[in-house]
Amino acid sequence: MKEIKTEIINTPKQIGDLVDWLVLRHAPPEPYEPTMNPTLRVYVIDVYSLGLQTFNTTGTKGRTLKDVLEDEKIPKILFDVRNDSDALFAHFGVALQGVQDLQLMESATRTTTSSRKYLHSLARCIEQHALHSEELTSWKRAKEKGRRLFRSEYGGSYEICVPASENAQCADYFFAH
């Protein structure tokens, strides 16, 4: 598997640079054709530290992350977007548009109506669709590491990622394998 480039975004300048990259990457051709070009990049945005700056910091073209998230022509792919959408709107006034929900896509691939009665969790989807056993093992290891970092019964805390740039453990959880 190829190396995934990772970056923790925790400054207004990084937000502006990310917004510029997203806008440039998804500048629509004429006529508009949707694109979903995968990259080997993962960005973890430290909304806890940045607060409203996360969504109102502008890039060089005057666009914000809020603009990108609300742009129906820029595809966003999330798994079970319901709570994320609710939290973004309630806390930051961000009304997601152009979201494709992987959980619903997975449900639609099932062959019988009865098999689509309930949505599967991310864990179950990964377990069922992992391409290689080493990928599944790696994912499970990262998930358990994250659980122990954040759950108080294991001595963890959600404060472990603040500030994220000073804590490699947080980055290890998000980007493991």
Automatic annotation (TrEMBL):
GO terms for biological process: nucleobase-containing compound metabolic process. This is 3'-5' exonuclease domain-containing protein. InterPro entries: 3'-5'_exonuclease_dom (IPR002562), RNaseH-like_sf (IPR012337), RNaseH_sf (IPR036397). PANTHER family: RIBONUCLEASE D. SUPFAM superfamilies: Ribonuclease H-like (SSF53098). Signal peptide: none annotated. Coiled coil: none annotated. Residues 53-127 form the 3'-5' exonuclease domain. Transmembrane segments: none annotated. GO terms for molecular function: 3'-5' exonuclease activity; nucleic acid binding.
